[in-house]
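Standup notes
- HV: blocked on the assembly model, inputs below
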Amino acid sequence: MKKLKYERPLIKKMNAGLMNKFGTRTEFQPVKAIDGVPVTQLISEYGSPLFVLSERQMRKNYRSAARSFKTRYPKVQFAWSYKTNYLNAVCQIFHQEGSWAEVVSGFEYRKALGNGVAGEHIIFNGPDKHRDELILAIENDSLIHIDHFDELYNLIELCDELNKKPRVAIRINMDTGVYPLWDRFGFNYENGQAWNALSKIVGSGRMRLTGLHCHIGTFMLSTNAYAVAAGKLCELAYRCKTLLSTPIQYLDLGGGFPSTNTLKGAYLPGVDTVPSVDDFAEAITTTILNFGFKQDELPLLILESGRVLIDDAGYLLGSVIANKRLSDGRRATVMNFGVNILFTSFWYEHKISPAQDFDQYTEDMVLYGPLCMNIDVVRESINLPLLNPGDHVVVHKVGAYNMTQWMQFISMRPSVVLIDEQQNIHEIRQAEKLEYMEQLEQMPAHLQQYKLA
Amino acid sequence: MLNSYAILFFSQNRVLAVLLLLVSFMNPSAGLTGLLCTCAAIALVRLMGYHRDSIQTGLYSFNSLLLGIGFGTFYSFNSAFWLWLFAACLLTITLTVVLTAWLGKYGLPVLSLPFISAFWLVLVASNGYPGMGLMQKESYLLVELNTGPQTTAIINFIKEIDQVCFGRYPDLFFRAVSSIFFQNSVIAGILMSIGLFIHSRIGFSLLVLGFVVACVFNAITGTYPEGISHYHLGANFMMVSFAMGGFFLIPSGRSYLWAIVSVPVTFMLVNALSRFLGVHNLPIFSLPFCLLTIALLYFFILRINPGKLQLTPIQHYSPEVNLYQFLNGRERLKDLQYLRLNLPFIGAWTVSQGYEGGITHKNEWGQALDFVIKDEDGNTYKSTGTRPEHFYCFNKPVLACADGVIEDVVDHIEDNEIGQVNTEKNWGNTVVIRHAGGLFSKVSHLKQHSVKVRVGEQIKQGDLLGLCGNSGRSHEPHLHFQAQLTPYIGSKTLAYPFAYFVSGTEWKQQLHSFETPVEGMEISPVDMNAQLKQAFSWQPGYAAKLTADNGRTETVEVFTDAYNQLYLYSKESGATLYFVNNGTCFYFTAFYGDESSLLYQFYLAAYKVVFSADSGITATDIYPLQTKKFQPGIWLHDVIAAFYQFIRRTYSSSSSYQHQQLTIHAKGYTQILNRKKETMSADINIAEGALRSFNINLNGTKTAVTWQTEHLF
């Protein structure tokens, strides 16, 4: 007989409730494999912690989102939001599927060029575009989304110098009935700033006004907000055509569609409450189609979705370092990953599954990361089976923002692997090493020697 | 003027015309009077202000030409000669104009009837009244050459080579050809044959065919024991064969068969008419040919279902051009045959049941299409698929396939649960649209209360009709589409293609034009590029200046003709280029004129452009075979073209976008049997919604042309 697994003793408060002949059940299922590849194999080959991305899920998400829009509206274009995850392998998957690139810095812009995206298929967003980056974007005929008047004036000067007419759009912020109102980016719609900017662009004669852009927020839970935003953009586009004689070629509704993660403080889990891409598509396309554009003047609809396309394609594998009991009697488990590499644990109550079999007993516990910092809490309260040091867990839906916002703090960042559609494993980013970290450091001569007393 | 000569053989070929003019002067007096009468006829009809194009083709003057030649051949010069020539010429012109109009009403040609009648009148009159002063002479050139006073070295030389003999039948053939000009000369026949061969291989082969069949027929039946004589007889057989086999009918195996069949009939006519007219001592000339051709032509015109034996729709005055344009047009010009139907939805849908699908598309309702949306795993639904909302196509927009008026709407039938069907109201919620030309289209199984249109409403192509649903005999949400000829819900179906759609995935797309999708095909509408469309949207009055790097410039302008067809006209070269812009693509239908012009190069380069900026979409097309240049390969092809075509000239183009500039990359190929060779490559550049320039590499010769649009206002 196989030796039974040790389980630490558990003391649980009696809960007076209805009797249940099946005993207490948990919703947990162990997740022993990702896309058919065993977790133990991944960890033994690439170490723990480890980020795992599923190519199959990414493509599936993209096609599903594209289908939602493209069967409702005749001209749709997706642009991969680089900041969501700019590992080159990830970007290439979305470019292969037909996505353009949406970048918010010169660094991302050059990354997109390096990935082989044609200049005219790069959307250059963001409040901080340097002069040399703008020149690069103009030379490459990229779509420049202007964020503020100072940038607009700079651009006019640049166009004069270069004698080129770049294609530009402005970013517009507006009241869509949701809180918080994002008014720090772009030009405001309600107070006329946006119209002022549009008039200036057309009036300057130096640029081609081709589009209107908005990005009303992130992790938006209301489809109506998008309908309002689309309506306002359509209204502006119509005014551009009639008053400025400049037909608008595209409306960029930005991103912000939520993944099915559960936000902190949410009463119900995300899977049950978050609207689907279909719902957003319905709201947006119906608004534009009903606005009254002529059929062959319908603007191209651009979407800069990132999170919704990749979040559930990413997993973080980790292991238990230790179990503890806190002063108030709560159980605490220390994991080998913390907020340094799982940045999104500041926002989400991530779903975490054990990666091996367990029995029916579960316990409420705090999940801590490995950092020597008080803020390093992965989950403040989670009900999990009893885990022993060395056991593995799988954190779900971590594909968005973690691999770009992770911190090299105290420990180094782990490797990232991609499981392709044929279940082959590819390491798409190696684990960081000390030499890599010190590569850019320089030591002044007077500090090279020391002698400890 | 030259056309008056060429049209005798249904041609507008200059080489043939010059040769004929030359041959007519082999009998100098006849040549002179022929030329005079032609000029007089042209001058008169011009002065009187008849239709210019008809004058141009020589339609009003070739009978006068024949009369002049006849007069010069039969009568000697004297003062009365000129008087009566004038009178007869006037009569011929009058008869030509009157008969042309009269027969024209029935779509029939006048042929040489005016000449025959006018000349008979002259003959009858002069035979009865010697006082008219017309002196008849021997009609054969050779006779005159021997006896005439003006024997010169040249005429002697002609006489010399006229003795050349090619054998009995070839000689007879050439003499028969020359007899059309009232001559009896091998050399004249040879010259005319060369001209005819250059003009048309099909036509020449038909002349030979007519001649051979007549000889064979005569040999079998022994109608004329001494063989067929060259004079009036041979020519009639040959001309009937030519006219029926290659000119008035599109050359084909069937038309050749008719050419053969008409020979015995011609025999009968020749004999019978000779007997009739013999009473009054009148020659029959080409009367049998005229009568039989007109009769047969009318016989063919009156058919209701023409089948495969087609009359020439647009006369190009060349059997080859007629044939190639016809074949090419049948393959390409679907715009003229069908109303342009677009797909009734947005995005990529899959045909779940095609024509004669066997499930519900059966019998009289067989020509219908069912559409669903599938994901990459081939499922039509997400989640569990137990509710209509789970299905991808449910609630998706359904569009009008073409402009029309709403004929009927049903909107109240409940959507079924998945797996249930409503056999009582089997079509479910339905919209029927009445389109132009008596065509109706119907979409069914729409969502309850989703229909946005009302009966009697005018709608445009692409307008929203309603939403896809699950009503009627539908066990899972899908869209049913059919075309029909009657306005009822439940009418039987009509097979009808969609004008343009794209099949395949985003990586490997294929453009289909005027096809019906088949079961399992994933199809989507063509993604249109407004800039490209604008660049080719040319209204009458659009003008542009073309400047080539070799210094040549041309000014082109868009005009419309009487049939509302748009064409580009090059002012410098006179070239004319007909085009069609149907909103989805731009293509040329015909080019006339100078093949060295820049417009011709543009014709080759922009033969067909689809307004899609998607570089994955390639437009393909087929050029008609060109016959004007000397290419022995094609001439060989011409001879058998009516039966089998082994040369194809194909075209393909696709577009790409870079730096605010759209470029159309075009390639031309010549395919002989299975060998394919690139003969043309071109780039057409478009910026800011206007054509800017094009480069073309034609068989290694490179030309770069800038295209400047002049101010339109």
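- HV (later): unblocked. Chain B touches chain A through 30 residues (CB under 8 Å). Confidence is low (pLDDT under 50) at residues 139-151 of chain B.
- Next: hand off to the docking folks.
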